[in-house]
Amino acid sequence: MTKQLIECVPNFSEGRITEVIEEIVEPFRQRKGCALFDYRADKDHNRLVVSLVGEPEAVQEVLLESAKIAISHIDLNHHMGAHPRIGAVDVIPFVPLQNITMEACVELAHTFGRRYYQETGVPVYFYEEAALKPERRRLEVIRKGQYEALKKEVMNPERHPDVGEPQLHPSAGATIIGARKFLIAFNVNLGSDDLNVAKEIAKSVRSSSGGSSHVKCIGLALEERRLIQVSTNILDYEKNALYRVLELIRTEAKKWGVPVKGTEIYGMIPAAALLDSISYYMQTEGFDPNQVIELRLLQMLRDNEA
Amino acid sequence: MTKQLIECVPNFSEGRITEVIEEIVEPFRQRKGCALFDYRADKDHNRLVVSLVGEPEAVQEVLLESAKIAISHIDLNHHMGAHPRIGAVDVIPFVPLQNITMEACVELAHTFGRRYYQETGVPVYFYEEAALKPERRRLEVIRKGQYEALKKEVMNPERHPDVGEPQLHPSAGATIIGARKFLIAFNVNLGSDDLNVAKEIAKSVRSSSGGSSHVKCIGLALEERRLIQVSTNILDYEKNALYRVLELIRTEAKKWGVPVKGTEIYGMIPAAALLDSISYYMQTEGFDPNQVIELRLLQMLRDNEA
After folding, report:
1. ipTM value of the model?
2. Stated pTM of the model
3. Which of A44, A137, A201, A276 has the greatest number of beta carbons closer than 10 A?
4. What would the pLDDT profile of A110-119 be if each residue is shown by its tens digit?
């Protein structure tokens, strides 16, 4: 029987102070039953994104350890960054990866969320597949107005947390916990310093304003690099090919005479998403992921393990 | 200790008769210690290319079994196809894949080559890293004039086989055995029926006439599909990125006003070669293969195995 594996991608509101970042990440290293696949901090976003893969039990333990460290260090009242957030530990999604269903990940999110509040005192909102109210499937609904607005509005019944009293943690805000499909974070950096251009392009790309379904998109300024960024989350890469999102942004950028300077794949990505795009750009006919030697070796080792 | 793994890519001169193809491939199926990763037959090439991965001992046994079947069915005196060949079993390269050196694969090619002649009576030429004469590193030198010319010229000392008497097997010709790096077979199909155009483009791409180093390239007519094909072998994909070969062919094709209709990755390909090209087309900055979830899972399983 192949092991159950989930991916968990906790987002922390600290992207600048190396010592704090390392302290938050430390519990994810070298633990039995889970592996730190990726972590990256962005100064402009002032945010740390971690990719953790492992067995459900082990992942929950290290998450709690790490969250407590983040909560002890991060004060949302003094936090500035380009990326929207409501908490020191802003988002914790569970993603089914191997031999586990989405339903089991929803269950996991709920159990973990209740324990998380008990142990940290930080209230919890459930989102995506784990949402208890339909409108809360969407992260941006929960995060509306960010920490600063939510601090006041949390007492309104429609903004009450799903777990915990109707008030935010005084320094760590609230945490959004859920279950979802594998998400691709994909950013396109453009050669301009006009934030308005990034915002206009983002508007034409994202689903909420008529763009691609399953694509979230915001325009940001990368002040350190003097660039603007169209930052996307592709919620369903099987329906929204990576190349299509990029080419759509390229097309819109042309309207403003702004060049694509480069792109960033932020965190982990499934091979299938890349193969799909390579097939587009290279016009491959009949290309099968089974032709990739490492994917076949993985299959061989899994078969041996089973 | 991680297992020793090699890839072996035997090429057989039969791409049309399904029953014969299946009979040749049968010994590669479901054998302990080796796995059939890929096989594809091409009617125009009249050629079958197999990718076999496994432990060196197991691979040799199934190769001999399969070669004997091919030799019993294929008569070079009645063989026609677009792809150059000198034998029923035309080429057998061994490729180091995991925990084995190139030197060990050269040794393997030599041992296997001698046993192959003893058991089949088909003379052997050694090529690439296993070549005993420097000019025989190059496949096309050994294969010059193909079966039809070699049948007569084999008695000339400079064309004597490396193993066996100076005469070809009456129906199965000769077999070229060697060791080499992972090779990518990459074909570009062009919307024209002018074979001369394919040949001219091939000339400008291949190393032997001033094109890219480590790239072999021929122009072929795909009569069934009424297309022409620029068929390449990329002998060192780390030095000759796939995208660069494709874009070079695209550039040359423009000169003739001929469109790229599609491309084919023939057989297996290492993930690194694809990632390299996706980074080019998508302008990714700082993308690391470790971000691909399956590559990390493979690493995890290998670590567990070790």
Report:
1. 0.83
2. 0.83
3. A201
4. 999 999 999 9
